[in-house]
Write the structure tokens for this entry.
Amino acid sequence: MNPVFLNLPDKKRDAVIKACMDEFSANGFDGASTNRIVQKLGIAKGSLFSYFNTKENLYYFVLENAINKIYNEVKPKVDYLCEIQNGANITDRFYSLTEICIDTYLDNPNEFKLFMTTLESRDLPVSEKLSETYSKLVGGIYINLFRGVRTDNLKVDFEDAVKVLKWVAMGFKDMVTAIPALKKARIKEFSGFLKRLSSLKKSGLSVFSLVGNEKKRFKNFALGYIKLALRVIENGIYKNPV
Amino acid sequence: MNLYEAGVVILYTIMTIDGVIDEEEPKEIARFLLNFGFDFGEGKKSDLPSLVMEIGMLGALDKQSLMKRWKKAVSVFAQNSSEKECEKMALYALDMICADRIILPEEEELFDNLGKAWNIDTDTLISNCKDEFNKGGLS
């Protein structure tokens, strides 16, 4: 990247980053148009390419920026949580982490979308370019998520608990098929959530497009769903079915 | 446990076996996570949130439980991948071991364990690595 870009006035630089973030998060790398970006910004295409040379460079810069933003927001919250919840049980920690994640999702929808779609789409080999930045997430956040928690409140095997938590973390997809035991024991409770989720999807809403009250509704919905999953692993899905 | 989760367990165990996490070591897990899909084919890709959870959950395990999970991971990886993919994974493991430029006996033992399970000559790989260190390479 041309250092001229970093020396631009904050307002102008932020506007470029935001316009690029919007475009790439909405359309992915292949579908994104630098013409639309410059049109939105009201600048010449030559200016944009004088800063970044190639579309790929621009993409990596915006992606790196998104990861850093997420890291800077989440890291202090996770550190604080680990400090005040030292010796907490795993389900309390998971619930608190989920709240942090949902808030970060809702406050930074484009950054999250760009990050997730890049890693899932495999459009570009991102490994070498991003390994420095991404390792901050691994070393600073991921490996500390459950460090030092207690697991003695679990009535299910740790392996099963991990499956439930992973399944929750992976979002709402494949929710019923993830653990056959859930099908047997709690399908009635989960079917209510499935119906609500399906109506959310049908209305065209996604976590990335929620505004105002919808954000609050989504958060309540997601946390209710997570509480339910945590109850499953705390109470034991086989021993104590509802 | 799927192929990628197994890969994460293998790297995490090597990373934490000496009780210290060097700042270079998480980079190897990051490289692995960022490369999945490229290294092991589209049909074998895994969801990132699930892998993040795997890394997080491993922090809740004591050493004995972690070693139990390691054994399972070594076996799951071999069952679900080709010989070439096992070799690639062994190289990730080797990079993790060499990341802090110190090869500890515990790390060597784990790598040896991997080599025996996957039929890979890890002794040669480790000794090449040590030679490179002596020459001042692999920085």
